[in-house]
């Protein structure tokens, strides 16, 4: 099972997002965890590699299982996605990244941008200032049509 971690940076400038070239979808910068790395370390490393920015004090806001199913509803891929939220950073955004196009997006535009449908749930949670970690499962077809979402907020207390 693959493990990925991403960072959602929300500042007065907006939300820094990455537009991936394959589908043109917008995502929170992040990527695959390396062996021996914690989810927070992976988030911070991947975010800095893709953006040039060092996240300050990112906090875990969601943990999701992502299932990809074939036409016969057999699971053909599965991964865990850990999302972190930060409101402070240091550094300067890189001019170019091989991962796609970086852009500050307004909070108002987030839900109008093309992205994986499950990501809207993560951004909705990130922008609502909840004290819980949102968890659940996203089920997609192989072409990333969302089949089902199961959500469960877990209190941090």
Q: What do these coordinates show?
A:
With 157 residues, the protein is of the alpha+beta class. The chain has one domain: Nucleoside Triphosphate Pyrophosphohydrolase (Alpha-Beta Complex). Helix content is 15%, strand content 49%. The chain contains two helices and eleven strands. The strands form two sheets. Strands 1, 2, 3, 4, 6, 7, 9, 10 and 11 form a nine-stranded mixed sheet that branches. The protein has a two-stranded antiparallel ribbon with strand order 5-8. Strand 2 and strand 3 form a beta hairpin. The longest helix has 13 residues. The two termini are 29 Å apart.
SSE order and pairing:
Elements: E1 2-11, E2 14-19, E3 26-27, E4 30-32, H1 39-51, E5 53-56, E6 59-69, E7 75-86, E8 88-91, E9 101-105, H2 117-127, E10 132-141, E11 146-155
Parallel strand pairs: 1-7, 6-10
Antiparallel strand pairs: 1-2, 1-4, 2-3, 2-9, 5-8, 6-7, 10-11
Kindly summarize this structure in a few lines:
The protein is α+β, with helices and mostly antiparallel strands.
CATH class: Alpha Beta
Main sheet properties: 9 strands, mixed
Q: How many β-strand stretches?
A: 11
Into which percent range does the helicity of residues fall? 10-25%
Shape: globular
Strand content: over 45%
Low-confidence stretches: none
Class by alpha and beta content: alpha+beta
What CATH architecture do you see?
Answer: Alpha-Beta Complex
First and last CA, distance: 29 Å
**Nearest-integer average pLDDT:** 93
Radius of gyration: 15 Å
In DSSP terms, counting alpha (H) and pi (I) runs of 4 or more, how many helices? Answer: 2
The CATH topology turns out to be Nucleoside Triphosphate Pyrophosphohydrolase
């Amino acid at each position: 099972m693959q493990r990925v971690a991403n960072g959602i940076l929300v500042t007065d400038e907006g939300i820094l997002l990455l537009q991936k070239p394959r589908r043109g979808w917008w995502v929170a910068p992040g990527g695959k965890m390396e062996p021996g790395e914690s989810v927070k370390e992976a988030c911070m490393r991947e975010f800095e590699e893709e953006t040039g920015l060092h996240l300050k004090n990112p906090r875990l806001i969601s943990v999701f299982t992502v299932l990809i199913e074939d036409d016969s509803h057999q699971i053909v891929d599965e991964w865990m996605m850990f999302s972190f939220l930060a409101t402070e950073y240091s550094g300067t955004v890189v001019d170019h990244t091989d991962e796609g196009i970086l852009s500050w997006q307004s909070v108002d535009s987030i839900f109008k941008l093309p992205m994986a449908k499950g990501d809207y749930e993560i951004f909705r949670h990130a922008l609502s200032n909840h004290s819980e970690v949102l968890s659940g499962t996203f089920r997609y077809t192989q072409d990333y049509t969302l089949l089902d979402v199961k959500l469960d907020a877990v209190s941090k207390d």
